[in-house]
Specification:
Type 1 dockerin domain; Alkaline Phosphatase, subunit A; 2 domains; 10-stranded mixed β-sheet; two-stranded antiparallel sheet; binds zinc ion
């Protein structure tokens, strides 16, 4: 093989740049939660429509445990706190260290704000309900709705707050905190999304209606979400957006399969809108998951498209079932087949070191082993983390991200560390040689 000297420095630069860009912390995160949406809720909706839900085609999928700190069966507050902060708390607690010292746990929304990025919360429940609250508030109880509204308007101040009204939120309080307030779909759709900065959508005086019952003048989840995206994507630094389909859960509590399916279909439509926005981007993570399963749903018969499946329910409460996760884009490869609901915070925030595939804060032998262990495989069949480029294949580009960042970060304790500088040097040389070969052939 002949190397043309003039091309080598350019090629190395290309490899270094590719390596640092590929694994940077996602610029945009869209965290989508189907409240109460277990695997059978997804399957039942697919039987009715005769086609999979939009998110079922996403490349990275797994299951997620949901238990709370003090209970096998979680509520939405403890589950959303785990998703938002990476910490297990007691049921009904909103992002405080309980059990523990009661301190405020940093949420993903706050983490992205601290990096100077825009944020938003969108839900079909009333705005101060447990799931959005866990991303934008800190309270000892989910039922402190007045205080939760105060946390939104005066402490965390997301740019976009779209959901049902009242229950602690008021037009006057939002306006005095600097928000433009809209109260119906027409008002929301008339917003100039290029210039709006702080918008509070207060739609009705409780949760939004079910899809199958009609929303009247109020907006659909998909409309709220695309409007939120249009506002947030004005921030050149990126954004964090949480979207909750909150009433899959309510239909589950009522053991109402018709409304359960209607909500899941609208959630699927909403995810599709988000995927259309994110298509072709490599700087955006779209996560679709649930906080817990509601109803203990069993499917007894698929009655064909257009017909509701025959089902049975085992509870009017939540169950301890694992829930599905589906992911697309930057860091989606960190999804594993079985995750804990506390894993998402680190998946998004601690994977800032390119090449640190096992998220231990250091790029070394174990990260190299992850890539080599799945060498030449398509990513969903391989260990997902082995594909930091997210191109669906484990190969040279992935190897170069590890080798190009070799020894970055803080080494783990000596007992677990295998520094082997000589072999590392050899591997680095091998990596660059492979990189050069690929780019000069
Ligand atoms: Zn519930």
């Amino acid at each position: 093989m002949l190397y043309r000297p003039g091309s080598i420095s350019v090629t190395i630069l290309t490899c270094v740049l590719a390596a640092s860009i590929a694994s940077a912390q996602p610029k945009n995160v869209i965290f989508m939660i189907g409240d109460g949406m277990g695997p059978n809720q997804v399957a039942a909706a697919g039987m009715f429509t005769g086609a999979p839900m939009s998110f079922e085609s996403l490349p990275y999928q797994g299951l997620v445990t949901t238990y709370a700190a003090n209970a096998a069966i979680t509520d939405s507050a403890a589950a959303a706190t785990a998703l938002a902060t990476g910490q297990k708390v007691n049921n009904s607690v909103i992002s405080l260290a309980l059990p523990g010292d009661g301190s405020e746990l940093t949420t993903l929304l706050e983490h992205y704000q601290a990096m100077g990025r825009d944020t938003g919360l969108v839900t079909t429940t009333y705005m101060t309900h447990a799931t959005p609250a866990s991303f934008g508030a800190h309270e000892t109880s989910r039922y402190n709705t007045t205080q939760i509204a105060g946390d939104y308007l005066n402490q965390t101040q997301p740019s976009v707050l779209f959901g049902g009204g009242a229950n602690g939120m008021s037009v006057a309080a939002a306006q005095s905190a600097g928000y433009n307030v809209v109260t119906d779909a027409a008002g929301m759709l008339a917003l100039n999304t290029n210039t709006e900065t702080f918008v509070s959508g207060q739609f009705g005086t409780t949760h939004l209606p079910y899809e199958v019952d009609g929303l009247g003048a109020l907006p659909h989840l998909s409309q709220m979400t695309t409007t939120a995206l249009d506002i947030l994507d004005n921030d050149p630094d990126g954004f964090f957006l949480m979207v909750e389909s909150g009433k899959i859960d309510h239909a589950g509590h009522n053991n109402d399969i018709i409304r359960n399916i209607g909500e899941t279909i609208e959630f699927s439509n909403t995810v599709q809108s988000v995927l259309d926005w994110a298509a072709g981007r490599d700087d955006t993570l779209v996560l679709v998951t649930a906080d817990h399963e509601t109803g203990g749903l069993n499917i007894l018969a698929d009655n064909g498209p257009g017909n509701y499946p025959s089902v049975s329910w085992s509870t009017t409460g939540h169950s301890a079932a694992n829930v599905p996760v589906y992911a697309f884009g930057a860091h989606a490869n960190f999804i594993t087949p079985l995750m804990n609901n506390t894993d998402f915070f680190d998946l998004i925030t601690l994977a800032g070191i390119p090449g640190d595939l096992n998220l231990d804060g250091f790029v070394g032998i174990s990260d190299l082993g992850i890539v080599l262990g799945s060498w030449n495989q398509s990513a969903p069949a391989a260990e997902f983390r082995a594909d930091p480029t997210g191109d669906g294949f484990v190969g040279l580009a992935d190897l170069n991200i590890v080798l190009g960042n070799w020894n970055a970060g803080t080494p783990p304790p000596p007992a677990a560390n295998i520094p082997a500088p000589t072999s590392a040097g050899i591997l680095l040389g091998l990596g660059w040689t492979l990189c050069l070969r690929r780019h000069t052939k």
